[in-house]
Amino acid sequence: MNRIPFAQQVPHEVRRSGRTLLFWQVFPLLWLAFLYYPVQAFLDAPHGPGAAALFWGLNTVFVGVFLRSFWGRPDPRWSVGGWALSVVTYALLLPLAPGGASAYLIYGGSMIGFQASTGLAAWLAILNVALMVLPFWNGTYAPGDLAWLAPNMLFTLVAAYGNHASFRRRVADAQLTAAHAEQERLAAEAERERIARDLHDLLGHTLSVIVLKSELAGKLAERHPARAAEEIREVERISREALGEVRAAVSGYRGSGLSAELARAKVALDAAGVRLTVGSALCTLPPATEAAAAMLLREAITNVVRHARARTVDVTLVPQGRGWQLTVRDDGVGGLGPEGSGLTGMRERLRAIGGTLARDGRGGTTLTATLPGEDDRPALPVPAGARGRV
């Protein structure tokens, strides 16, 4: 029996793309159209108040359980319970709606398929078909009814298979998303440990030496001023070396560039079912310009995954004048509503280095950034009091 552990099934907190979420909200409502057959069969004959109360009450409970088995957190208990309710509803309503009660067994096949056990889904779907055949033995159905009942039997098996395959796909997608999230968490944890280790190695010994020499200079200040001054100069030298080491280390912590950000974007878009195309080979950019471009790409891809419901994303980076133009275009819902804090922050970041950002919400969303060359970047103002300082 092929099983997927329940602990590995779809986490309730996993964010799915807007398109997939909308499908799983609408899909169960389409299935409810099959209730037309038992309702029509029931209305074709007169029934007393008790029969009417039984029929409508059971249908109300049945619809609630059916929607819960699809809309709630995937749970085998709801799947098996929904199947059992479909069998009970079929047995109780068969005398009241003989021409349409088999629809409940089709619902049972769909619900039993939406769980992890392939063997259980298969056997209970076959049992559904057997239950459809039983009324021929007691005379409820005539032999001629097999012409319309046979497609129902086939559809029961198809519904069970289709929903089971769909369920397993959802589980696989959720496991892949969880694996990516775990990889990102472990990478972040490893990076934090590396930073802590590097800072300890860089500054631990240096700061200890600075403290000792400062204490020594304080003790020598009155008795041996020359030696105290020498120790202070040594403290200054060590401090400058430590500052250089820290700056070198910090430069290594900065983003790994546009190419690495593009690789991360592909992973995120693949998980969301969005195709990424890159229009041209990436140019070599100055470090500050490349950092801004990578941040813009990250913000744009985040917005696509969260809001756009897009199918494709195109990224191009081409020379323009003495700088470059980065374009990120998607075919999602677009819109010209107010910008969020992410895009506003990116606009300010580009403005700080002499670039611009334009947004077009027609036919999707297009972000166009102009990136300056090294010589075109504005010089940062230096406060008067800071001139000459290290």
UniProtKB/TrEMBL annotation:
Gene3D superfamilies: 1.20.5.1930, Histidine kinase-like ATPase, C-terminal domain. Keywords: Coiled coil, Kinase, Membrane, Transferase, Transmembrane, Transmembrane helix, Two-component regulatory system. Residues 357-390 are annotated as: Disordered. The keyword Cytoplasm does not apply. InterPro entries: HATPase_C_sf, HATPase_dom, Sensor_HK_TwoCompSys, Sig_transdc_His_kin_sub3_dim/P. The chain crosses the membrane at residues 21-39, 51-71, 83-106, 112-134, 146-162. Residues 171-198 form a coiled coil. SUPFAM superfamilies: ATPase domain of HSP90 chaperone/DNA topoisomerase II/histidine kinase (SSF55874). PANTHER family: NITRATE/NITRITE SENSOR PROTEIN NARX-RELATED, SENSOR HISTIDINE KINASE DESK. This is Two-component sensor histidine kinase. The lineage of its organism: Bacteria, Thermotogati, Deinococcota, Deinococci, Deinococcales.
